[in-house]
Amino acid sequence: MITNTAAVATTSDTAEILLPLSNNKGWYALTIDNSRAAVEGWWSVDGGTTWARLGASGVVSEAQIYVSGNVMVKRVASGSNLANVWGWMHRNRR
């Protein structure tokens, strides 16, 4: 299992690494927990090439997702900073 050891926060529009991948591309079960914040943002599973919406006070839970780069989060452009974002993922056999 890969998990972040400290909550991730943003301080600018620059994306932050939530979960480093380190050459282990593949299918994972993934959870991104943004439930401690009331701020929307974005998340990526390919090192920041494509982005999906991260809901305010929400949790993203994917049972089977292909991760090809670092899992990253970023705030909405020029918006409020994300704070206290946690993540977990573990390898799935496919």
Q: What can you tell me about this protein's structure?
A:
By secondary structure, this protein is mostly beta strands. It has one domain: Jelly Rolls (Sandwich). The protein contains no helices and 8 strands. Strand 4 and strand 5 form a beta hairpin. The model has no long low-confidence stretch (mean pLDDT 92).
Question: In terms of topology, how is this protein built?
Answer:
Blueprint lengths: L1 E2 L12 E4 L6 E8 L7 E4 L7 E3 L4 E9 L3 E5 L10 E6 L3
Antiparallel strand pairs: 1-8, 2-7, 3-6, 3-8, 4-5, 4-7
Q: Let me know the largest β-sheet.
A: 4 strands, antiparallel
* CATH C-level name: Mainly Beta
Shape: globular
As laid out across the biggest beta sheet, the strand order is 1-8-3-6
The low-confidence parts are none
How many helices? The count is 0
Number of domains: 1
Fraction in helix: under 10%
State Rg.
12 Å
Using the coordinates shown, work out and report the CATH topology. Jelly Rolls
What is the distance, rounded to the nearest whole angstrom, between the alpha carbons of the first and last residues? 16 Å
The secondary-structure element order is EEEEEEEE
The number of E-state strands comes to 8
What's the overall average pLDDT, rounded?
A: 92
Name given to the CATH architecture:
Sandwich
Protein traits:
94 residues; mainly beta; Jelly Rolls; four-stranded antiparallel sheet; 8 strands; 0% helix; 44% strand; globular
